[in-house]
Amino acid sequence: MAEAGTVVDENLRICQTAGGTETKIPVTLINGEQDGPTVNLHACIHGDEFEGVGAIWRIARNIKPKDLSGAIIATPIVHTSAYAAGTRESPIDGKDLARAFPGDPAGSATDRIAYYFFNEVVLKSDYVLGLHSGGVRYRFHPLVEYYSGLARNVDDKSKAMAEAFAVGPCSIVQRIPTPIRFNTCGYQSCIHGIPSIENEMWGEGRCLPEHVGQNVDSIVKVLEHLGMIKKGTATPHQAATGTRIPDHCEGLWVSATNGGFFVPKVQMRQTVEKDQEVGVITDDFGGTIEVVRAPTNGFVAAMRTFPMIQPGNWAVLVEKSVD
């Protein structure tokens, strides 16, 4: 742990294989001059999701220890091998790091990354904020997720963080009921008593400056909410103006049954009705082999924009409002 009032760049070193191949996860520790909570900001759990990387770099460069109460553990690139390859999953063992937590020190490369990152970073934090996007295959309307149905104090704190994050274009607060079948970092954090949120923002393999800035705006609002920085502190963001109530939702993905060429038939934020056609999958001759239909009444929050789709791949995300 660095001394109060300092910024330290280090690498978390992980022995990845039995042969000794080493993985390094870059870590910037910003240790404030005043006491306060420790928050982990992480991105690039999936190696093709870049908007969060840029946002964490910007936060790490601009928030000064003199303005900070507590500590920020900034880990912009968690899955470094996937990041280097520009792929969602590991190029070493083919696994999805976002489904591997809390990990296994005796497992394959991805299992080991999950284990050491979770134990050396996540479990040493009081709050966790994970940044995601649509990667190269999807486009998301900006949203923030929290898990519900665990310990009441964790649920309430996670929800409050999500509501703080929902500024600017991030207008969807998505509740994820538990238990779930995915072992995400955020879910496992909450199980271990650490309030956590995860966002989804844009994607399509891009990292536009305005999308990075939107992430920064939201991170700053969470840090303000946690009492770690004062409102109006000189930070690299432009505060959203006005007030509004975000949409509180639960999301339902519809997945492809057949592989082929996916053609969406809806637009982002479009209102849809249950069983409405939201896309089609065509064969090699352009003929329709599957009509993709909305699983519920609601609105479109994300869709696959990479045309080739395999059985089981997500096609369209529909959000329904909840109280």
Radius of gyration: 20 Å
* Secondary structure: number of strands: 16
Overall structural class, as computed from helix and strand content, comes to: alpha/beta
CATH class category of the largest domain: Alpha Beta
Overall 3D shape: globular
Largest sheet: 5 strands, mixed, barrel
Distance between the termini: 42 Å
Please identify which CATH superfamily of the largest domain we are dealing with.
Answer: Zn peptidases
Number of helices: 6
* Share of residues in strands: 25-35%
Q: Residue share in helices?
A: 10-25%
Please trace the helix and strand order, writing H or E for each element: EEEHEHHEEHEHEHEEEEEEEE
Weakly predicted, low-confidence segments:
none
- Order of neighbouring strands in the sheet with most strands: 6-7-9-16-14
Number of domains: 2
